[in-house]
Amino acid sequence: MRLLPAMLPHGEGRIVMTSSVMGLISTPGRGAYAASKYALEAWSDALRMELRHTGIKVSLIEPGPIRTRFTDNVNQTQRDKPVENPGHRRTFHPRS
Fold it and tell me: What segment(s) does the record annotate as region Disordered (predicted)?
């Protein structure tokens, strides 16, 4: 991280990270995505505490659902991939 050493001598500033509401909740089939957002949640929280006496603030933006093709694309990708484990298939695709 090159930005932080440049900010420290000034004793002020704000680091803004963008995550997702999935950093607070998870849903079936989105575990890996949610895990990456939980990681950002933890990292920004730790960084905020580590910098509390420096004048540098840390903010995390966690927007909720936004209408884009992202979900459609993810869902299509998942449909294109066969599920190799029959137990796993029944869990997520009960009719197959």
Answer: 69-96
Lowest mean pLDDT among 42-46, 56-60, 78-82: 78-82
Residues annotated as catalytic (active site), given as ranges:
33
What pLDDT does residue 94 have?
A: 66
User: Helical H runs in 51-85?
Assistant: 70-80
Tokens 């910098």 correspond to: 51
**Topology (CATH level 3) of domain 3-92:** Rossmann fold (3.40.50)
CB-based contact 44:17 (threshold 8 Å): yes
Q: Which residue's entry shows tokens 């089939």?
A: 29
Kindly list the domain boundaries of the chain, sorted by start residue. 3-92
| CB count in 10 Å sphere of residue 26 | 15
Quote the CA–CA distance of 73 and 56 in Å, as a whole number: 38
